[in-house]
């Protein structure tokens, strides 16, 4: 685990508003950001239960799949990934995320999108146990009580001066941890990467306070969707601040926060902390798609 640090962003905002980004993306070279936090206590629990195999779920460019594959190898587990989309079976070599996971020992089971929707049902899990034997189940996106416990460690004493803490939201685990560990003077703002209002109920399963809001205006059309405006924003942000942003989660969140500042959403003198949840491994796959669409690619280095 590498030390995480808060990087002040030297951007001039109206109303004396300041912005800092917590570089969780630097916590580990391959298991970055919230994936490291979510897996920490799940891997300890798997060891405590004497499990030797981790099984989890994800899509074609899933940060979670890549993280479980590497973390599993690092900690001595076999790993199995149930992958959404049976058309991907013969496209592993073309997919940087799946190729990385396979190179780190993950065994794949490709299922149709219809079958994938059954991933939480007991009968589906039993079928997987019949096929693969005993395993420790890590949910899609990694969110469970142990994941939330890990995410409660993101905020530290040095973050006490911030009024607002902002993060991207996928399955709700990261924001739940932030909500639970926030101080009374802090408001947590979540920026969902998916369309739909179901996340509020998911977060309430784990969150113990009411110090939070979801802002659902910055998903750019839904999960994995991206347009020229977002590409240009992410690239300009990197040029100016030397902080790479992923286009699925953190890039959309940062875009949203800066847009809200200019729309006077935040009171004067607000101190805003952005949580960089990692996810940079997915950029290679996204750039393949952007080239196919003849759009500019995302920059991650000079």
Helix and strand sequence:
EEHEHEHEHHEHEHEHEHHEH
Instruction: Give, in spatial order, the strands making up the sheet with the most strands.
Output: 1-2-10-7-8-9
Number of helices: 11
What general outline do the C-alpha atoms trace? globular
Q: What can be said about the biggest beta sheet?
A: 6 strands, mixed
CA gyration radius, whole angstroms: 19 Å
Q: What distance lies between the first and last C-alpha atoms, to the nearest angstrom?
A: 25 Å
- Uncertain stretches of 5 or more adjacent residues: none
Mean pLDDT, all residues: 94
Q: Give the total of beta strands.
A: 10
How much helicity do the residues have? 25-40%
Hey, roughly how much beta strand do the residues contain?
15-25%
Query: Which structural class do you get from the secondary structure elements?
Result: alpha/beta
Describe the overall structure.
There is one protein chain. This protein is α/β, with parallel strands linked by helices and 302 residues long. The chain contains eleven helices and ten strands. The strands form two sheets. The protein has a six-stranded mixed β-sheet. The protein has a four-stranded parallel β-sheet with strand order 5-4-3-6. α1 packs across α6 and α6 crosses α7. The mean pLDDT is 94. The modification N6-(pyridoxal phosphate)lysine is found at residue 35. GO terms for molecular function: D-cysteine desulfhydrase activity. Its cofactor is pyridoxal 5'-phosphate.
